[in-house]
Design a protein that fits this description.
By secondary structure, the protein is of the alpha+beta class. Helices cover 30% and strands 12% of the residues.
Length: 196
């Protein structure tokens, strides 16, 4: 570990360029500070100014303009706990605003994944995150699930046919490959409860 005379951080040797002319064999400043001096901000040096330059602050929500994850959440590299990590941009925005990392989850009040506006973010547990997902009806259920064999139209037809006395549960379920117990769960709203 060496002390960087520019950013005043103690960093591993790998973060410094070798310099055989110096007594310890390495430069006085780390490679990230050296790059920043030349106008390049490397992937491991992220300053607040650099971060906020990648955020559009013109609207109600402040979307991240950089790279994004699969579900639309912004992603950036940031030095956390002394090492470079890929972190969600909204978590970094929370950190820059409040001086601490949100634990364990950082949630959006606005339900806009790329938003980095600090007053649109709040901390929560995994349970709060799940409840928030359910309350905003974003969870995978019904036809959104990859393994769903039925559609909402079929579920409504099963309920309507049974209410009209069109047959037993077994007879109603047969055309759709369902047995009586599955039809019973649909009728009692133990399955497909969200379908009215």
């Amino acid at each position: 570990m060496l002390f960087c005379h520019q950013c005043h951080a103690t960093r591993p040797l790998a973060d410094f360029w070798r310099n055989p002319q110096r007594s310890n064999g390495y430069h006085r400043i780390c490679r990230y500070c050296a790059r920043a001096r030349r106008g390049y901000i490397g992937p491991m040096l992220r300053t607040a100014e650099y971060f906020w330059s990648k955020v559009d602050k013109t609207g109600e929500c402040w979307p991240w303009l950089g790279g994004k994850k699969k579900h639309g959440y912004g992603q950036t590299s940031w030095r956390k706990d002394g090492e470079k990590r890929n972190i969600s941009a909204h978590r970094v925005a929370f950190f820059l605003e409040y001086g601490r990392w949100p634990e364990p989850c950082c949630l959006h009040k606005c339900d806009n994944p790329p938003c980095c506006r600090p007053d649109h973010l709040f901390e929560g547990t995994q349970q709060v995150n799940r409840q928030d997902t359910v309350s905003k009806e974003r969870q995978a259920r019904g036809e959104k699930q990859g393994h769903a064999r039925l559609t909402e139209t079929i579920v409504k037809k099963i309920r309507q046919d049974y209410a009209n006395g069109m047959g037993t549960m077994k007879e109603i379920g047969e055309p759709f490959g369902l047995d009586a117990s599955n039809v019973n769960k649909i009728l009692k709203r133990q399955a497909w409860a969200h379908v009215k």
